[in-house]
């Protein structure tokens, strides 16, 4: 096992029994969020590299948003 996994197991084992399951659930939830964010960033970078993205114009965005809000 890796050092990080050993540390995580040791940390969870140090907790009182009633805190172990919620702590493990939280760690898993955070890891899934991290993975989703990493995947989204990778997808965005692939779009940039393939030329499917363009610079974001904040002023244009605000103009369109304000126009839609007036409808």
Structure explained in plain terms:
The chain has one domain (3-70). With 71 residues, the chain is mainly α. It starts with a helix and ends with a helix. The protein is elongated and about 55 Å long. It is built from three helices and no strands.
How would the blueprint of this fold be written?
Elements: H1 3-14, H2 17-49, H3 58-70
Mean pLDDT: 95
Q: Please state the overall shape, judged from the principal axes of the Cα atoms.
A: elongated
Give the distance, in angstroms, between the N- and C-terminal Cα atoms. 59 Å
Number of helices: 3
SS class: mainly alpha
State Rg: 21 Å
Number of domains: 1
Give the helix proportion (percent range): over 70%
Poorly predicted runs of 5 or more residues: none
* Main pleated-sheet profile: none
Portion in strands: under 5%
Order of helices and strands: HHH
Strand tally: 0
Keywords:
mainly alpha
Brief account:
The protein is built from three helices and no strands.
């Amino acid at each position: 096992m890796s050092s990080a996994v050993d540390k995580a197991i040791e940390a969870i084992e140090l907790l009182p029994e009633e805190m172990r399951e919620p702590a493990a659930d939280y760690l898993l939830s955070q890891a899934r969020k991290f993975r989703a964010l990493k995947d989204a960033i990778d997808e965005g970078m692939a779009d940039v590299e393939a030329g499917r993205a363009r610079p974001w114009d904040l002023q244009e965005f605000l103009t369109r948003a304000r126009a839609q809000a007036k409808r």
